[in-house]
Amino acid sequence: MLIVILVWTAVRLYEWIGIGKQEPKAVLYLLQVSAFQQQMLAGALQDSGGAKESGQLNALARAVYSAQYSHERLQRAAAAGEVPGLAVYRELLSCLTGLQLSGNRPLTDAEKALLAGAAEQFKAFAQSYAEMLGGNREWNRKEIEKLKKQDTSIVQFLTDRQFEVKVVS
Asked: 133 - beta bridge partners?
């Protein structure tokens, strides 16, 4: 009995110090759901390349909202500062709103190129997102930093190209 108490105390002390800290299962499950939503968004972005009219982008907008929602819930469930805030969702929604603002109309070649470029970059983003938590259920700092850089890159791409699309149109 004494051995069991000593082992239990040692394990609790080990966890309290923070060595071997693992995320709870709920956070792990939320990450899996959120990573799935990122893959869904990547697929919707890829599919948007075939859109001929702005009205065909509604499914893409719903995928962005869903990915944003699941990411925000993951951020809230994880320890403070573990999951980064991402601006890509806000910028994608801003871009889609701009494309759909004047109602259902044919998409220009520049707008199609904008969506195709975003889709290409988002594939890598979704992959990095899925790898934020390592196999040992500890946050993968390298992938998180990579994700933040990809977020910045996609936002910059959308901002720059969205301005070009508006100037050209």
From this structure: 139
